[in-house]
Structures are given as structure tokens and as C-alpha cells.
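Q: What does the predicted 3D structure of Late embryogenesis abundant protein LEA-2 subgroup domain-containing protein look like?
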Amino acid sequence: MAEKINQQAHPFAQVNKQPRSDEESGTLTSDQELKRKKRIKLAIYIAAFAVFQTIVILVFALTVMRVKTPKVRLGTAVTFQNFKTGTQASPSFDLSFTTQVGVKNSNFGPYKFDSTIATFMYEGVTVGQVTIPKGKAGLRSTKKVTVTANVNSNALQSTASLGSELGAGVLTLNSQAKLSGKVELMFVMKKKKSAEMNCTMTIEVSTKAVQSMNCE
């Protein structure tokens, strides 16, 4: 009698103890499998993003943050204001000309350089100098500075080679300069960089024009 009363008082107890059907078990298994696939997919996305971010950082470090040495070149557009040369028998020269010095900056930040002296030489002997004023070459651009130079043969101890050149109708001058400055990256990083110019200019005497310009 007591057992019957207990069964009537808790009619759902026996129902809850009934085992789950195959359909319910299959649904739970399917949900678990779906969650597992989602977790795997999320892990793949996170890993792919991490790899992508690493590649971006490497490319950024190898390109943007890599500091290259700027290049300094003497321009080929030379305008002569004064052009006097002697003969093979009495060799000499006295020239005045205007040209441009180009400072090429390939970096992703400006290159600020100090004032310096460009020296013109004939066979290693200084025959003239010109000042390159301080300036700034913008990121991935070329700064052109106009200069006027006066060169003459007064300092030459020997003019034998000069006589041979003038006899051939040419005059060869070498120009050298060294710029000292800093490359600025991301407005915070500054790195010192020196740029050197070494150009050889061949002038054709008869036409009073630059025949060739070779820079190293």
C-alpha cells in the first residue's frame, strides 16, 4: 500500500529515469560534432591570421624599415658662363658653370643632410670647390640643388697631360663630395647615413658641352 502511494506521489521520477532514445543521443552527438568543427575552424583562422601578421611584419621590416644609403650625383645639364682653354702648346683652362647636384633618397622617410663641400679635380689636383647647402630629400624622391662652380688650372704643377687632352679636343674633370645626414623613419627612428659622390665629367672643347658624365 505504501509503495503505491509513493509511486502516485512521484509520477515523474520514473519517467526521468528512462534512458534517452537513439534520436536524442544522435542529436547530442551531432551538436558536439558541430561545436568541435567550429572550434577547429576558429583555430585555423587564428593560425592563418598569425601567419599573415608575421609575414606583414617581415615585409615591413625588410622594406619600409630598411635604411638604404642615398645616392649623390652631378647633373648632366651643365650651363657654361665662362669657357676659356689654352692650346696644346700652352695648355690651361678657366671655366665657370652652373649645374645641379641630385640627392636621391630611396627610403620611406626623409633624408636630412648637412652642408658640405664638393671638390673638382684634374688628375687628383683640386682645381675648384663649391658648397652644397644643407637640405632635405623627401621620402622616395630626389632633391636637386643648383650650384655654380669656378674651376681653373692655376694649381696644376704639370700641364703635360692637359696639353694632350686639349690637343684631342676634350677636358676631363672629376668631382667628389660626401654628405652626412640622417634618415628619419616613422617620425621616431633616426639613422645616420653618409652619401658619397664620385663623378667624372668629360667636356668637349669645340662645342663647349658635356660629352659624358659617369658617376660611381
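A (community wiki): The C-alpha cells above were generated from the sequence. The chain has a mean pLDDT of 86. Residues 22-62 form the longest helix (41 residues).
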